[in-house]
Structures are given as C-alpha cells and as structure tokens.
Amino acid sequence: MDHESDQPEPVEAAVLLKLSGVAVVVGLISGVLAAAFIGVQHALSHWLWHSLPEALGVPQAPWWLVIALPILGAGLTVAALRLPGEGGHGPLDGLSLEIGPREVGSIALAALAGLSFGAVLGPEAPLIAIGAAVGAGVMRAGAAPVRQVMMIVGAMSAVGAIFGNPVVTAILLLELAVMAGPKLASMKVLVPSLVGLAAGYSLQVGVGGWVGLGESVLSLPGLAAYPEIPVSDMAWAVPVSLVAAALAVLALRGASLWAGIGAARAALVLMASGVVVGISAVVVTAVTGVDPTLVVMSGQGAMTDYLRLSSVAVALVVLVGKFVAYTASLGGGFRGGQIFPAVAMATIVATVVAIGSGEGVSAGLLAAAISAAVAAAMRMPFTAVLLGVVLTIAAGGAVAVLAIVGAVIGLVARAAADRRWPRLVAAESVQTDPRDADGERHVNA
Fold it and tell me: Which residues pair with 431 in a beta bridge?
C-alpha cells in the first residue's frame, strides 16, 4: 500500500515565515475592528434597552418600546440588505469567508441593526465576516491562495475578540478546517491563523505596560465547587443534554421553514420576525415580571440572570419566549450567529433542573447542556466541549466529563435530525475565497 499520498505536503519555512509576518498585520487590524464593532454594539444595545428607558423615567423598557425596537431593527436590516454585499450570509447559510472590503459596510450595518435592536442572534458571524474582509483587503493584490489564507487569518482573529479565550477559537479553526477539507487543513493556513489569532488576542490583554483594549471573558461566576461528579448528575446529564439539543435542532427546523416562507417576500418576513421577537419579550415580561432583555438579543450578557430565575414556571416561560424569538430571528432574515442563543437556552434548561431539585445550578449539568446545544446547532463537538468547559471550569475540572457527554449527545441528536429532515438547514457550508489558484470558483462544505 502506498502511503506517500497520505503524507501532508511539505511547507517551506520561508513560506511559513512570510505568511506569518503578514498574518500579524492582518490579525492586529482585524482585532482592532472587531473590538470596535463589539464596543459599538454593546454601547448601542445598552443605550436602547437601558439608558433610553431611564430617560423615559421607567425602570425597564415599556411594552411599546420592546415591540418597536426589533421592528426598527428589521427595517434597518432591510435597508442594509440593499447595499453591496446584501448584509452578508444569513445565520442558516453557514460560515462564509467570501467577504471583501466592499461588502463589509452592509454586513456591519445589518448585524448592528439586528443584534443591538433585539434580534436573538450572536455576534460571531459578523465578526468572521469583518475579519475576512480585512484579510481580503490587505492581500487585494496578492495571489488568490494567499488571499484566501489571509481571509481565514482575519476571520479567526476577529472572532477571537468575542470568544476571549484563544484556545476556543483555535479549536473552532481546526473544526472548520476539517469541515472544509484539505484546502484549509494545511499548515499554510493553520500556522498563520494561529499567529494572527495571537496578534489579535494581544490587543485584548495588552503588552508590557499597556493594558490592552479589554478582554472578553467567557465565564459564569458563582457556581458551586465541582471537584467530582455526583451520581445524580451522571443520571441527569443525558436527559438535560437531550432537551438542550432538541431545542437547538427544533429552532433550526422552525427557522428553516420560516426562511422558506421569506424566500419570496424577504422584507415582509423580516418585519414580521421583528414583531414576533418584540411580542415574545412583552408576553414573557407580562407573565413573569422579568426584564425583557432576558428574551431579546443573544443572551450572552444575561447568563447570570438566567441562573437566578426564581421558579420552574418563570424559567419555562422565559425559555419558551427565548426559543420563539430565536427561531424567528434565525429564519427571518436578521444577521448574526447561532452559538450564543443556543448557549442561553441551554443555561435555562440547567436552571430548570436546579430549581426543580431544590439545589443550586450544577456546573456539570450546565456544561453538558451548553455543549449539547452548541454541538447540535453547529455540528462542531470539540468547539462545543471547550465552550461548555470554559464557561464552567471555575467550578472545577470535573465539568469536562459531562461537557463531553453533552457534546456527543448533541451531535447524535443533530445527526438524527439531519436524517429525519435532510433539508433541516437551507444551506450549510464553510464558504471560502472567491477563486482558487486556477481561477475556478470553489465552495468547501
């Protein structure tokens, strides 16, 4: 048997050094722009959902504002979709790296219009697009293969700004490379991407006496110590993971059906999605008294609030509202990512179990639920495990075992759903640079 064809293509050290040098530049620029986007998005969200109600003399957004903001965000998204780039790919279309500088304005506007005005999506997709555009811009005059590498470098550097821990982004990169095939699973791609990721992360943590731009910390504080796995958690891990995974899959299924309706009337369905998001939040607030921000937006900033929900009934109502708003946002034409809303729903699932048992939220069950939801939503089990662990590791290293259990259950649930609904997601792929070295267009799934 000939094993030579199985060996990776050797890469010259000079090539790696040259690509890595450019990757530093791309990583730094991508990191700055990613930090700027996150800063603007957070500031706008805070003003709309907190400062504006305070200016109106009320402790939280009134019902009419809760409905109006997602509708206004939908209208702004419709406007962004008419600009060059059409707002980028939707959250059901996979992760795209086919973004150039000309399209990035439309993508940023569409993402801000959705994420800040209440759409239940995460910021990872627009960050990837912004970073890819930086790579394309820096290497605009370069050869297509090199440009492709730098678009990946930029994408990873930018998305690292929201994941905080660069190891999460590195694992995400490896899983994307596996999904995309041998063109991306190459040292010419992976090594510069790691260099660019390090350069971008250095902007967050600072160098020398400079304190940096600020680090995005993925961690849930206040969890009880978890040095070992209770027997009860081993029993609960499977049903909790199944529920979290089922919610993620059903949201994808509902979103895909909703997107099918919107194919012929995109603007109308986008506006209707804004209405659904707003009404979901209003109903949840009216029934439970919780702040509407527990329903709108990605949920990333409300994680500790989910852990403090007062009763099973309240938690279930919030979960239903979040699920409906997430489904509508996912399939309605808003722009953003799938990960953090899935994490938010998983957190509520773990909270329901904790309240029902009369004990505090188990870090292990929380890790299992988060990993299951992310694996089911993204089909990336290793990234799912790492996210589940990073968010709960402060409680103890034993959480890693149940995170793995959750990720496996989530992936199996997604595989079963894909078999049941072959068109579960309208179009799901990792899309890369416009042209290969031979000038032919390619899309790697």
Answer: 96
